[in-house]
Specification:
Blueprint lengths: L5 H21 L7 H22 L3 H21 L7 H19 L3 H4 L2 H17 L5 H24 L12 H27 L14 H22 L4 H28 L15 H5 L2 H16 L1
Helix pairs in contact: 1-2, 3-4, 3-7, 4-6, 4-7, 6-7, 7-12, 8-9, 8-10, 9-10, 10-12
Length: 306
């Protein structure tokens, strides 16, 4: 029933050891720094859910990513103002989510890569035309499709790593590539947060995200690049210099994804996109960096090894 490459199992065990250390640090401060404690507890749920799912047949973690996309898109739709005429358009948008992940599950790259950017892009305005409401047409069409691109199309790239043939990464397969992507994305978030807290003085984008600093960004880039080079031989086919370059690029992409979702929330005058994940906010808050890193990592790997 469970099938996990040895290197992936070791990497998961190493992540859990780090989480045990974080829990030991957070536990004595759980009353004083309650948000840190909530964040640590939620990480346990996320890691255990991910670890169990990737040990099962690949359709299970692909379905899990489909659920994450559904929840992220639902949060997005809840946040943005919509017209009454858009309700049936949103139904079409929701129905595109299982279809997109079905293409992923059968490994149909040609359909996966154009379904939402082309066919759904054309279908949603058509449904709006049939509804007969022209007031706010352009804004509604652009907003709904942008939400699908971020919450569904971008995130589905992470799931498609599981559908890639193992021949491209004989050492750890798609599971290793997915774990490597998630590890770098989250390490970057943590590295930027810790570096910013310890050294941060100069704001990067004060109008969008006042807590982001140059020192935090640089710290995140350095840590992510180092982890990328250290973990690559165990989880990917990347050479050390390819891994270093990918770590550098993903760190910058993760930062871009983070501040882009921050810009959306600031436009809507919100702190978090939701409250589903205690200590983290909503699903969009947790996957904001991944919406940028997943497509980038997928296409680099696909170009180099498939």
């Amino acid at each position: 029933m469970f099938d996990l490459a040895p290197n992936v199992a070791i990497a998961l065990a190493a992540i859990m050891v780090l989480l045990f250390i974080a829990t030991a640090v957070a536990w004595p401060q759980r009353h004083k720094k309650h948000e840190l404690w909530l964040r640590t507890r939620t990480w346990w749920v996320i890691i255990l859910l991910l670890g169990v799912s990737i040990a099962l047949p690949s359709w299970v973690p692909i379905a899990l990513f489909g659920l994450i996309s559904f929840l992220a898109f639902k949060e997005f739709v809840t946040l943005i103002p919509t017209r009454r005429a858009d309700h049936r358009v949103l139904l079409w948008a929701y129905l595109s989510i299982p279809l997109q992940y079905y293409w992923v599950s059968i490994g149909w790259y040609g359909m996966f890569i154009i379904f939402i950017p082309v066919y759904i892009f054309l279908a949603l305005p058509l449904r709006m035309v049939l509804a007969g409401e022209t007031q706010g047409f352009i804004k509604a069409a652009g907003t709904v499709h942008w939400g699908l691109m971020i919450a569904v199309f971008s995130l589905s790239h992470a799931a498609f790593l599981l559908a890639l043939p193992n021949e491209g990464n004989p050492i750890a397969g798609g599971d290793g590539l997915l774990l490597y992507l998630l590890l770098l994305t989250e390490i970057n978030d943590v590295g930027q947060y810790c570096s910013g807290k310890l050294l941060g003085k100069h704001k990067v984008v004060p109008k969008v995200s006042p807590n982001k600093t140059v020192e935090g960004l640089v710290g995140g880039v350095i840590i992510t690049t180092l982890v990328a080079m250290l973990a690559a031989p165990y989880l990917t086919p990347l050479s050390w210099y390819e891994a270093g370059a990918i770590g550098f690029v993903l760190a910058l992409a993760g930062f871009a994804g983070d501040v882009t979702i921050s810009a959306v929330k600031r436009d809507l005058k919100l702190k978090d996109s939701g409250s589903l994940l205690p200590g983290h906010g909503g699903v969009l808050d947790r996957v904001d960096s991944l919406t940028f890193t997943a497509p980038l990592f997928f296409h680099i790997i696909y170009f180099l090894y498939y």
